[in-house]
């Protein structure tokens, strides 16, 4: 009886930690660091840092006092031929600036206008936002998603329950 109770408490604790944690996004702020981005947990501080970074290129970034929810952003500026949003940059494109990170939904990151008129005339953007963990980076195809870990954990819990009963 005690084994089942302890197992249930531990299982609930692991599942609860997954639901209690905030959104996580990949993070980098230049082309070099975006080759191997880090992971950050979204908070008002990380979203404010995104707004500060955006302000270096855009003059119309609104100030947001705080948010209860966040999104992951992927913003790339490049020069060269126009490409569809789902196509990776080709050999004729030059990467000018790249950013991955957490953002406040209210700043509408993909709707910002560049401050510099020359950049506005020549740079093109590739921008995307998403709302699930680590969704803002097209990294290695062989990485596990959060749902894969959930499935593996559920199967393990079922097998362990069967063995203990």
Description of the structure:
It is a single chain. By secondary structure, the protein is α+β, with helices and mostly antiparallel strands. Helices cover 34% and strands 21% of the residues. It is built from 4 helices and 5 strands; from the N terminus they run αββαββαβα. The chain has a 3-stranded antiparallel sheet. A two-stranded antiparallel ribbon has the order 1-2. The N and C termini lie close together (9 Å).
Low-pLDDT stretches: 16-20
CATH class: Mainly Beta
By CATH, the superfamily comes out as CD59
* Number of domain modules: 1
Give the proportion of residues in helices. Answer: 25-40%
Q: Fill in the CATH topology.
A: CD59
- CATH architecture, please? Ribbon
Number of strands: 5
Rg on CA atoms, Å: 21 Å
How is this fold's topology laid out?
Blueprint: H1 2-20, E1 24-27, E2 38-41, H2 44-55, E3 71-79, E4 94-103, H3 117-122, E5 124-130, H4 146-164
Antiparallel strand pairs: 1-2, 3-4, 3-5
